[in-house]
Amino acid sequence: MCNPTLIVAGASAVLQYQVQTAQQKAIKQQQKRQNEIALRNRDAKITSSQRQLIEKTKARLTKIGDAEKISRKKRSIFKTNRENFTGNTYDSLLANYYDTEGTYRNRILGNIERSKFNYLQGTLPAIDNQYDAQSTMVSPVTRGYNAMSSGLSFASTYYDYKAKQNRYGTNEELYGYEDYTSDTDIYSDSGYQY
User: Are 150 and 13 in contact, with CB atoms under 8 Å apart?
Assistant: First the structure.
């Protein structure tokens, strides 16, 4: 018959296993939720920065369009007044005008390219680094380690129980090993008595 101490120790080991497994599952779920929040934050920041980039690009392209409309109007006025200018003066003024218009257009297009470059080289890696800082590694549920821990706990209790029995002299083995230790048969290597 089993001792009540061992029954309690066995039940305690089973409960310890279940509690450890439940704790690990809860930690895993919390880590998954944190990673989901970090991913949502990352997606929101990427969407926001993309929207800002698109708005800046549209505003700059609108500036180019407005400047082009103004320059067409001025060129048409300038061409109608051609009678006042002669040969080289007219060509140099027109060349200077086209140079100024091209410089303005190239400066705006350069700003658009620089914004895209800053977005791809600066903003996106910063958002990814922030996501990496906010997310965590999802730890697995280790049932094997939990079972070993519970088993060792039970073994410790069982060993303490047997040590106390031996100390107080209450350990009475119903079945001993003395029958198997003496070699009584000359043909037997195991020591088992046939």
Answer: yes
Domain membership flag for residue 179? no
**pLDDT tens digits, 60-102:** 888 888 878 787 777 666 665 555 656 566 667 677 777 777 7
Is 189 domain-assigned?
no
Which residue range is the domain that position 56 belongs to? 4-165
Assigned domain for 63 exists: yes
Question: What is the longest distance spanned by two Cα atoms in the chain?
Answer: 138
- 113-139 pLDDT per residue, tens: 888 888 878 888 888 888 888 888 888
Helices (H), 81-190: 87-118, 124-134, 143-168, 178-181
Q: Which two three-digit tokens encode residue 145? A: 């380690």
Beta carbons within 10 angstroms of residue 146's beta carbon: 19
- Distance of alpha carbon 161 from alpha carbon 168, whole angstroms: 11
Q: What is the DSSP string of 62-89?
A: HHHHHHHHHHHHHHHHHHHTGGGS-HHH
Q: Give the total number of structural domains in the chain.
A: 1
Q: Is residue 185 part of a domain?
A: no
Q: Considering only CA atoms, which of 106, 119, 121 is closest in space to residue 52? A: 119
**Residue entry with tokens 């279940």:** 18
CA dihedral for 73, 74, 76, 77, sign (positive or negative): positive
d(CA 136, CA 141): 15
